Fold:
Amino acid sequence: MPIKKILTAAAIFFGATMTHAADTPTYSLVIHGGAGTITPDKLTPELEAEIRGDLKHALEAGQKVLASGGKAVDAVTAVITVLENSPHFNAGRGAVFTAEGKNEMDAAIMDGKTLNAGAVAGVTHVKNPILLARAVMEKSPHVMLAGPGAEQFADEQGIERADDKYFYTDYRWHQLQEAKRLHMGAVMDHTGNIEYKFGTVGAVARDMHGNLAAGTSTGGMTNKAHGRIGDSPIIGAGTYADNKSCAVSGTGQGEFFIRATVARSICALIEYKGMSLQAAADQVVMKQLVEMGGEGGIIAVDKDGNMTQTFNTPGMFRGMVGSGVPEKVDIYKD
Ligand code: ASP
Structure:
């Protein structure tokens, strides 16, 4: 065959392959339920089964949205709502206690297509802080509302409130007493001598239209000061999404994540330096954070649907699923 014909045939073949790939809509979903010193000896088999069950349930809620052609922001909202309703995670119902014995929750959501974002900080009686963050994004001209103003906005928007009893769990109360007894200061959910088992929750998704979204929800750190706000609701620190690069949700010691602008840094390394998702995540989580002394991890998905779960702690509650990628829930390091 003359060389020109071979080249033409090759061009048609590769062109067809690429068109086919571009025409086949795919989706990706990654979730987390917190990172920390999570080792098999810290969980009873029953508790581990319950946590795995909740993560699976959350993954399925998000997958249902994505597989039927729904939006990434809706999938992220669905996942986080399920995890906030479980007492097993440090978000919504299972939120940790502040030093004053109160629950102060933070949450954020970001739409990678529009770069719209919504966040709430220090809310005390909102059943699902992620729904309030979403309302801030879609129904207000602002990005972040905090404290009583955020609660007032919840009432205006008809978002469900819950009383102190709803957020009380013996387990969390015991955690706070232990942190105080051991003079530990503010502690990450899974760190230290106390059996910290449950964590902040988050989700990132790429839908079949190629749009990205990220969301995170947390009770913060046990024994934290009244008014302390972590990285989760800070756009660019614990949560970020941009269709040009990636969507990220973090979990770990918030003060470090804020100082390292973790989520946005990962996206920026992809956008400006052309790094792969995994290389960018490693650079920030395994190098920069480690050098600073910051513990934690991230989940992320890039514009092409690649997924990562990268953490510098012994474990991270996590799950992923995608087109052609079977559902998988993990807890410990591989
Ligand atoms: N990043 C959260 C915070 O600092 C805590 C966590 O992820 O466990 O508020």
In short: The chain has a mean pLDDT of 89. The radius of gyration is 20 Å. The chain has one domain: 3-332. The chain is about 40% helix and 25% strand.
